[in-house]
């Protein structure tokens, strides 16, 4: 047979001699194994190890200092000062640390809750320069020169509740209470810019704060009460 024809491409009769056809198929013969020279391989191996070691050492010597200097220059300082609730607090912060983590686990301000940890539920809402922000999506290193207010920072000098907190209690707004700190912070931010909002404006201001208990009407009533009594 001059060239190979796949068996499924052959046109054969029903009474064809299949064994004869099978005998025509070329048989693959593996190439003979290549036995390397042990002495030459050992020599080449040692030469390769010496060459690679020399190259790595030279690269580390010439570039190591420059790389370390560049990393130190690019990395922000870990120890920073953050203004939280009117106090300047020094804190050791990693490069990718969020404000929520800093508040809860470095400064002990656990009133700021962590829910989704991806900027969706609003449980971690705090005020940054009187504007509500999700602290789980805010890097602590971005807060130099800015003022942070958490739920703990709303209390009075003698520990009395903030008027918004009182309104929430009087309207029985919280149920499980997990989302309440974020709801209060958003409500306080609203009244700072709009002291007399409508119910629709309150709903819009609190739309970034989810409540799994579904107490949205109670929260709206509480904000409206705080606005009336302000």
Describe the structure.
The chain has 230 residues and is of the alpha+beta class. Among the domains are: 79-153, Roll (Ubiquitin-like (UB roll)), CATH 3.10.20.30; 155-229, [2Fe-2S]-binding domain (DNA polymerase, domain 1), CATH 1.10.150.120. The chain contains seven helices and five strands, in the order H-H-E-E-H-E-E-E-H-H-H-H. It has helices at residues 18-24, 38-74, 99-106, 163-170, 180-193, 199-205, 216-229, and strands at 79-84, 87-92, 125-128, 131-134, 147-149. It has a five-stranded mixed beta sheet with strand order 2-1-5-3-4, sandwiched between helices. Strand 3 and strand 4 (131-134) form a beta hairpin. Helix 4 (163-170) packs across helix 7 (216-229). The longest helix has 37 residues, at 38-74. 26% of the residues are buried.
């Amino acid at each position: 047979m001059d060239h190979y024809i796949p068996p499924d491409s052959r046109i054969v009769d029903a009474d064809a001699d299949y064994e004869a056809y099978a005998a025509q198929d070329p048989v693959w013969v593996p190439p003979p194994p290549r036995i390397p020279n042990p002495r030459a391989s050992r020599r080449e191996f040692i030469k390769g190890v010496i060459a690679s070691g020399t190259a790595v050492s030279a690269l580390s010597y010439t570039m190591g200092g420059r790389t370390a200097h560049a990393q130190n220059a690019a990395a922000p300082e870990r120890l920073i000062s953050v203004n939280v609730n009117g106090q300047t607090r020094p804190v050791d912060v990693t490069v990718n640390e969020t404000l929520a983590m800093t508040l809860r686990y470095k400064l002990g301000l656990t009133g700021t809750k962590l829910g989704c940890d991806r900027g969706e539920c609003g449980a971690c809402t705090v005020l940054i320069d009187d504007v509500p922000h999700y602290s789980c999506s805010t890097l602590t290193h971005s807060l130099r020169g800015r003022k942070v207010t958490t739920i703990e920072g709303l209390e009075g000098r003698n520990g009395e509740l903030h008027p918004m907190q009182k309104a929430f209690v009087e309207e029985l707004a919280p149920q499980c209470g997990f989302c309440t700190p974020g709801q209060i912070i958003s409500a306080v931010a609203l009244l700072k810019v709009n002291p007399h909002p409508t119910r629709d404006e309150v709903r819009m201001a609190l739309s970034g704060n989810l409540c799994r208990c579904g107490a949205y009407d109670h929260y709206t009533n509480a904000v409206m009460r705080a606005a009336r009594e302000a």
